[in-house]
Specification:
The structure holds two protein chains of two kinds. Chain A is α/β, with parallel strands linked by helices. The relative contact order of chain A is 0.13. By secondary structure, chain B is an all-alpha fold. In chain B, helix 1 packs across helix 4, helix 1 crosses helix 7 and helix 3 crosses helix 4. Chain B is built from 16 helices and two strands. Classes of the chains: A alpha/beta, B mainly alpha. The interface between A and B is large, with 74 and 50 residues. The complex binds iron/sulfur cluster (SF4) (2 copies). The site of one iron/sulfur cluster (SF4) has 14 residues of chain A, from helix 9 and helix 10. The site of one iron/sulfur cluster has 16 residues of chain A, from helix 12 and helix 13.
Chain lengths: 534, 359
């Protein structure tokens, strides 16, 4: 099914993805409430890790007074993002605090008490779409700390720079929003479509691409209409495509397949086939960074579920405690059966409501008892629902059986690493078997195994180096001994006394250059974290 | 598993459950069941009830022995369905102990000996049917002409009770061979089909079910309605029944064209005996059939081939039961070798090649 306005190239017949499920989308709960601004909370907790990659390094200290938008922590390494002050105020602590993660383990966090002055720092000057170079735009995106806002939290600038390594042809904007309940992208596209279109224009310029496809699920006709209007005159070669409503349509590689018919090779990137995928909300963040110099300090998220009093779409500052947001939405109705950060398919239970929202948080859900899955687990009846639901063509029942037998390698043989953790299999299983949980457990275990193996190999290599060195020293000693003997013998022959002993030659292996070929420890750990379906 | 480990995604669920699925199958069985009970009268009703009650009884005993939760498993619908399917495949006026024995074989040997729900390699109902057929060929092939409930000459409730529980010679007079048995026997006496068929065979009767046969397998039309219900409710996919039926049609037609006097045509194959019933209700049994679509096609074709071969050239006129058990045994193999193609990989599991590639 396709949706095309007369002045756009007629949309091709869409290819369907295999598998997928049709959850009740429940978007009506919040899809008609306009984005509202959340008032300033009393405290902001800003974790130093809100992205894939290394922890950001703080550049402020306890007791500092900071301005809104001021840099708080610098991204470390190639895949990391900087963090900025969401508002002006006082840094009251830099310490560990519960992270919005199911483990509830604390991570280093900056605590900021807003002074309610909203005093902006000196912002970089606005960029001009026509005049700025791709490098400038990518740099601006990096310095604004923008990450993939669909939940994958991969630094966006790194993706924009892929043009240096790949021949890119198409930019796809992922506005599928296939997770049930979530409506924040829908609202964003409807209310701020011009800004999103502008952000897309900047992305296209940074990537040096002029073919753009915007994919929106067909259950959001208003967003499709709004975007179609907004791109007029702003973007040249653009297609807005209504994609079938099916979970996990927003999974990056599957979306690419639906929109272009091209299948991304396993373990590869979409860039391998010339395609870059960015999220709609990321485009909006890039617009703010380019036009106003604003860093990423706020985001829009959906608060929904039948256990929340007033479902809404709220624009909140990064670091706002979850409990404040729920209170802003009228609080809870009864005791929710599940409290989640993210959508019901891939979201994570919230261990502590005092933990803050981060750059990748797209929803807070309070699900009542009859909105969640039951929990008694029955034996697998081999019904094949999971096989039919899997968008990646896997056999979840077999993978699960192998993992339960601790045969991780044989689970990998049948595609464990191609699993995108979308949860469609568990959703469809009549026996309620926690399939994804088992796959995530196995993937985690594989990473640990690989690390251990690398560490062992490293130890072995070092031990071998040491042995070799000892060996060489011993050899050198033997050699020297032999030479001395020979010299002695010669002396005896000549009867000429000589005291000097030959020093070990400078080319002796004893002081050979240290082995420089030590491999980087982490190099071969395959990135197992998958691009999240948004 | 404790409840803590269960808090894992996805938090939404399709809300299907094993009992839902089993109930859908039973619902699809209802048309042919009710019709069968109607045309074969009280003895069939008693036999049906005895079979189902004993299936639940054996299930409860097995669960107790295996120390599994009776409340959780007894009412998941699986034992009810197994008993139901066993009853469907029995001759309508068979004595009560055939039903009890059938359920016992299905539940104890067919299911729990292998570890219970989801573990059995063979379809329990088929195991029961074949074992009964081999052990009690006479009882299992004594068919009667349909005598609908309340019609003249049909046994009343008391007589029905007597037939099922004490056996009654009075009614032996009207017992008949099934169409398949008859044709097979007469062909053995080197008669041609042309002369045999009119004596016993009417397409209309076979389709509507006005023929001797098992309780649940007489009306091809009602079975088809049940099958369509299964497809519509997505309880099964089309792969197994369609591949099974199409293969049968193709094979039968080819042979029929080559020698119409020896080989009956496709409609005969489809409407007589339990082929259609098995195609929708037995071959599609989740536990014992392959899970991936392509594998299911192979499985369906295999059953059809074997059934045709057994029916045509071997001693047993009703080959579909053996064919299913044989293909059940092949299921793990088929499942192992025929998997869906993984996204981003070719059939042999290698990543696809990139067409534009890196710079
Ligand atoms: S959906 Fe569940 S019960 Fe069905 S085959 Fe998969 S794991 Fe087994
Ligand atoms: S979680 Fe993995 S195995 Fe399950 S449906 Fe998604 S990709 Fe397939």
């Amino acid at each position: 099914m396709s949706f095309a306005f007369p002045n756009f190239r007629a949309a091709r017949k869409l290819l369907s993805i295999r598998g997928g499920v049709h959850p009740n989308d429940q978007k009506i709960l919040s899809s008609e409430s306009a984005i509202e601004q959340m008032p300033l909370p009393n405290l902001l907790r800003i974790p130093l890790q809100q992205h894939i990659g290394a922890l950001a390094e703080p550049v402020v200290a306890k007791g500092d007074i900071v301005d809104k938008g001021q840099l708080l922590a610098v991204g470390q390494g190639s895949v990391s993002a900087s963090i900025h002050a969401p508002t002006s105020g006082l840094i009251v602590a830099i310490s560990r605090f519960v992270a919005p993660h199911p483990s509830g383990l604390p991570v280093p966090t900056i605590t900021l008490r807003p002074d309610r002055e909203e005093r902006w720092t000196d912002l970089p000057s606005p960029l001009d779409l026509e005049k700025s170079t791709p490098e400038e735009i990518a740099k601006r995106v990096a310095s604004a700390g923008i990450v993939g806002m669909g939940g994958a939290t991969f630094p966006s600038s790194v993706k924009l720079n892929l043009r240096n390594r790949f021949k890119l042809e198409t930019l796809i904007i992922n506005a599928a929003e296939c997770e049930p309940y979530l409506t924040c992208d829908d609202r964003l596209l409807r209310e701020r479509s011009a800004d999103v279109a502008d952000g897309i224009a900047f992305m296209a310029r940074a990537l040096d691409i002029n073919k753009i496809i915007i994919g929106i699920e067909e259950n959001k006709p208003d967003a499709i209409a709004a975007m179609s209007k907004a791109v007029e005159g702003v973007l040249a070669n653009v297609q807005i495509v209504a994609i079938p409503t099916r979970y996990p349509m927003g999974s990056e590689k599957h979306l690419v397949q639906v929109l272009t018919g091209q299948e991304t090779p396993a373990r590869g990137l979409t860039a391998d086939i010339g395609i870059i995928v960015h999220n709609g909300a990321t485009a909006y963040a890039i617009h703010k960074a380019a036009r106003f110099g604003h860093p990423l300090i706020s985001r829009i998220l959906t608060v929904s579920g039948r256990a929340v009093k007033r479902p809404a779409n709220v624009e909140v500052l990064i670091g706002t405690p979850i409990v404040d947001i729920i209170t802003h939405c009228g609080g809870l109705v009864g005791t929710p059966s599940r409290l989640l950060l993210g959508g019901p398919m891939m979201g994570q239970p919230i261990a502590n409501t005092r933990s803050p929202v981060v750059k990748g948080s797209n929803g807070i859900l309070a699900l009542s008892h009859n909105e969640t899955r039951r929990d008694e687990i029955m034996p697998c009846i081999r019904c094949g629902n999971c096989v039919n639901a899997c968008p990646s063509g896997l056999t979840p029942l077999d993978m699960n059986a192998r993992i339960r037998n601790e045969e991780l390698d044989s689970a990998v043989d049948i595609g464990l690493l191609d699993c995108v953790s979308c949860g469609a299999c568990s959703y469809a299983c009549p026996s309620n078997i926690p399939l994804v949980q088992s796959f995530n457990y196995a993937k985690g275990k594989l990473i640990v195994q690989q690390r251990t193996k690398q560490r062992q190999e490293e130890t072995k290599r070092l031990a071998k180096q040491r042995n070799d060195r000892m060996e060489r020293i011993a050899a050198a000693k033997r050699e020297a001994m032999a030479r001395r003997k020979a010299e002695k013998a010669a002396k005896l022959k000549k009867h000429t006394p000589e005291k000097e002993i030959a020093p070990p030659s400078s080319s002796s292996p004893l002081i050979a250059a240290p082995n420089k070929s030590a491999e980087p420890l982490e190099a071969s750990v395959e990135p197992l974290i998958t691009e999240a379906a948004q | 598993m404790n409840s803590q480990s269960l808090v894992c995604g996805p938090h939404a669920h399709s809300m299907t459950s094993i009992s839902n699925v089993m109930m859908l199958v039973i619902l699809a069985l209802l048309p042919t069941t009710l019709f069968g009970l109607y045309v074969f009268g009280w003895p069939a009703i008693f036999l049906f009830l005895v079979t189902i009650v004993s299936a639940l009884f054996f299930e409860a005993i097995c669960l107790a022995i295996a120390q599994k939760s009776i409340t959780r498993y007894l009412f998941d619908g699986s034992a009810l369905l197994t008993g139901w399917l066993v009853a469907m495949t029995l001759p309508p006026w068979a004595p009560w102990w055939i039903g009890v024995l059938g359920s016992g074989i299905a539940i104890i040997i067919g299911k729990h000996l292998y570890g219970g729900l989801g573990q059995n390699p063979f379809n329990p109902a088929m195991v029961a049917r074949i074992m009964l057929l081999i052990s009690f060929p006479l009882h299992m092939t004594t068919w009667i002409m349909p005598a609908p409930l309340l019609s003249d000459g049909a046994p009343g409730i008391i007589e029905g009770f007597t037939i099922t529980f004490f056996g009654d010679a009075k009614f032996d007079a009207i017992s008949q061979a099934s169409v398949l048995d008859y044709v097979s026997a007469e062909l053995g006496r080197s008669r041609t089909l042309e002369s045999i068929l009119p004596e016993t065979f009417s397409y209309l009767n076979l389709t509507l079910g006005q023929v001797p046969g098992c309780i649940g397998e007489t009306s091809a039309l009602l079975i088809l309605i049940g099958g369509v219900m299964l497809l519509i409710t997505r309880t099964i996919t089309w792969h197994i029944p369609v591949s099974l039926i199409v293969t049968t049609i193709v094979l039968a037609s080819i042979c029929n064209i080559l020698d119409p006097n020896r080989y009956p045509d496709a409609v005969f194959h489809l409407t007589s005996g339990s082929l259609i019933f098995c195609a929708f209700f037995i071959a599609t049994d989740y536990v014992t059939s392959p899970t991936a679509p392509t594998a299911q096609l192979v499985y369906g074709v295999g059953i059809a081939l074997l059934t045709f071969v057994i029916r045509t050239w071997a001693a047993f006129p009703e080959g579909v039961g053996f064919a299913i058990l044989f293909m059940n045994a092949c299921t793990p193999l088929i499942d192992h070798f025929i998997r869906p193609r993984v996204f981003g990989r070719n059939r042999s599991g290698k990543p696809l090649l990139t067409n534009t590639g890196g710079k």
